[in-house]
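Dear V.,

Thank you for sending over the compound details. I've combined the ligand you provided, 2-acetamido-2-deoxy-beta-D-glucopyranose, with the protein sequence from our construct and run the structure prediction for the complex. I'm sharing the raw inputs here so there's no ambiguity about protonation or stereochemistry in the SMILES, which I know was a concern on your side last time.
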Amino acid sequence: MARLHSSLVVLLTLTFFELRLANSSPIAWTDWSPQSPSPETYTSIQNTLSLFSIAYDTKQLSLLDQVFTPTATTNFTGNAVQSGVPAITDFLQSTIIPGGSQHASSTVHVNQTGPATANVISYLSAIFFGSASTQGLAYQNFGYYEDQMVKQNGKWLVQNRVIHNYGGIGNISVVPGAS
Ligand SMILES: *[C@@H]1O[C@H](CO)[C@@H](O)[C@H](O)[C@H]1NC(C)=O
Ligand SMILES: *[C@@H]1O[C@H](CO)[C@@H](O)[C@H](O)[C@H]1NC(C)=O
Ligand SMILES: *[C@@H]1O[C@H](CO)[C@@H](O)[C@H](O)[C@H]1NC(C)=O
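Below is the predicted structure of the protein with 2-acetamido-2-deoxy-beta-D-glucopyranose bound, written out as structure tokens.
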């Protein structure tokens, strides 16, 4: 009986989770023969991706010029494109909430297409924390980043970033303006 009960709880939890993420669009790659980067290139790319999360979560957006090239473009919301570090910074600044956030970029896959070019996929999981009337609540967002990266002056930087958003779980009222 206890076992049936816990199976039901698992099933219901999974069903709920799937329903909430119903707008998911699984990664569909057709070419599964990417070119592997050297360990140094992989580490350097991962370091740049991590710096994005740290810059955002610690609200030090001046670090973004070590993440993006001066002519970088981004598409965070699916319906708007930002061009150049100042526009990217302004957009991100407008999305920072008082309660703060924690971004994790994981499952980093690098497809190196040349000595100084790479297509990079990394999974995104971002948790946003409530404050004031939403204190104690949280909203967690899932998806992945698709980055075109280039090596400039010895550093791997993002030239183009598109976010593929799967949706999220938790209470969206934590993130004002989102729905
Ligand atoms: C790797 O990059 C090449 C060149 O852009 C592209 O044709 C291929 O689809 C990519 N493969 C993966 C798995 O990303
Ligand atoms: C932004 O990215 C989404 C995929 O997340 C894509 O469907 C959309 O066409 C892109 N929008 C622009 C303006 O590039
Ligand atoms: C989310 O939190 C707000 C503020 O506490 C509350 O009014 C609302 O009912 C909550 N929504 C859900 C779906 O729990």
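A first observation: Helices lie at 2-20, 39-57, 85-95.

Warm regards,
I. M.
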